[in-house]
Amino acid sequence: MPGYVKDYTLAEIKKLDAGKLFSKKFIGTEILTLDEFLAWSLSTSLLLNLELKNNKIDYEGIESKVLKAVKMYQLEDRVIISSFNPESVERMTKLTDTLEVALLWSRKHPDLAAYAKQLGAKSLHINYRLLNKNLCSKAKENNLPLRVYTVNRRAPILTCLKLGCQGLISDVPDKAVKLRNKYLKI
Fold first, then answer.
1. Structurally, how many domains does the chain consist of?
2. Residue 22, in any domain of the structure
3. In terms of Cα–Cα distance, which of 144, 186, 179, 142 is closest to 165?
4. pLDDT at 22
5. pTM for this predicted structure
6. In the chain, count of helices (H) and strands (E)?
7. Distances, alpha carbon 102 to alpha carbons 20, 42, 111, 154, 165, in Å
């Protein structure tokens, strides 16, 4: 089905197979609604990073709808809301002071940490290509946890650890945890 999610009904989206591209063992995996995902997450202790996919299409009211769902499931202490859309970050931070809101960023910026702070973000999630000692220092000065995405290879994972990043986002979390444990001698 080509096009945007907004152009389809939930029933049409539920007919899609979200797993077959990844592995035969995932064939038939259904796309979850936010409510279904949050209900499932209650059985775990996972920290959740909910990315608002609103940088191309700025869906009206998405921030309040997501916040309402997170509160309904009482997950405020386990959820980070992130977005590449600076206006969305600002709107979310005006709606809540209990949730951690992160600015997602992939381009160079003269003072990214100060910009994130100005928007009201409580953390900064950056593309690995932007990671350097100066940005780490600026994030620390601005009291912004710095997390790096999408870090899948050994050398970049170790760089994140050496620079003291507060987290990394990876498609291979098992590999990242093993490297972290070895690096920290856990």
1. 1
2. yes
3. 144
4. 86
5. 0.91
6. 8, 6
7. 31, 22, 16, 25, 14
